[in-house]
Design brief:
By secondary structure, this protein is mostly helical.
Length: 91
């Protein structure tokens, strides 16, 4: 396990302390939970951006675009399920 020294401005520290007390958890646990949530959020954004780039590639390929339109609706349902899992910290 690694250690991190973290410096916070006064306002952010006080907001964090307030949340820690309300949630009745340790400051360390709260910060770890926040970082995990933020990392999942960035992973989701990266996946969304990758998918946007790939859709643009497919759009530029007429045969690929016709095929894409056939499975687009089902794929979006699956994608939303996958993104929901990522958001909830599941692989």
């Amino acid at each position: 396990m690694k250690s991190v020294l973290l410096k916070l401005d006064d306002k952010l520290f006080e907001e964090t302390e307030k949340q820690v007390k309300e949630l009745k958890m340790s400051r360390n646990g709260y910060i770890k939970m926040a970082l995990e949530s933020y990392n999942r959020s960035w992973a989701k954004k990266a996946l969304e951006e990758q998918l946007r780039r790939e859709v643009e590639i497919i759009k530029n390929d007429k045969a690929g675009w016709a095929e894409f339109k056939e499975w687009e609706e089902a794929s979006l349902v699956d994608l939303n399920k996958h993104l929901d899992k990522l958001e909830n910290g599941k692989p």
